[in-house]
Design brief:
five-stranded mixed β-sheet; two-stranded antiparallel sheet; thiol protease
């Protein structure tokens, strides 16, 4: 249906937008790419989609440079990561919840935003451990809460847009 930058949306991806469905990596990846390229193309702002975040979290600290160096993480002032709780590297597009991890270089802090309080903390911690710098901190942020079991991806995209605007 759409090829945009590094993202290719198929009909089944677009269909997720029409009902009460859980959004997949491709839809959130498209939103992140659009925010970075069109809505807020600013130096120092980096949005990392779920696929790269999943890879980073599973490579761990020793493999983090493979993902972060080409993205110029070191030069970024604000980095937004789409976080999924999929624990299984053998099962693509698994998991049951999306959240957002935001890194701010000014205070060397990672802030975790989850629309389902208490969810995804383990996944965010794994990502933090892979991406952190010596002295970095991780904190949970107060976040508007979803009222159903499928809007977490929408919250991630809305929060990412809000944080881009604030940057």
């Amino acid at each position: 249906v759409l090829s945009y930058g590094d993202t290719k949306l198929r009909g089944r991806d677009v269909d997720l937008l029409e009902g009460p469905h859980w959004l997949n990596d491709m839809v959130i990846g498209f939103a992140f790419e659009y925010l970075a390229r069109e809505a807020f193309p600013q130096p120092g702002l980096l949005l990392i989609p779920g696929s790269a975040t999943f890879l980073l979290a599973n490579l761990g600290r020793d493999g983090s440079a493979v993902v972060l160096e080409p993205l110029r993480f070191v030069a970024a002032q604000v980095v937004l990561f789409a976080v999924n709780d999929n624990p299984d590297v053998e099962h693509a597009e698994g998991g049951s919840h999306w959240s957002l991890l935001a890194y701010c270089a000014t205070d060397d802090t990672f802030r975790h935003y989850s629309s389902l309080q208490g969810s995804n903390h383990r996944a965010a911690r794994r990502l933090f451990e892979a991406a952190r710098r010596p002295g970095s901190t991780l904190c949970e942020q107060a976040t508007p809460q979803q009222r159903n079991g499928h809007d977490c991806g929408v919250y991630v995209m809305a929060l990412a847009r809000l944080l881009c605007q604030r940057y």
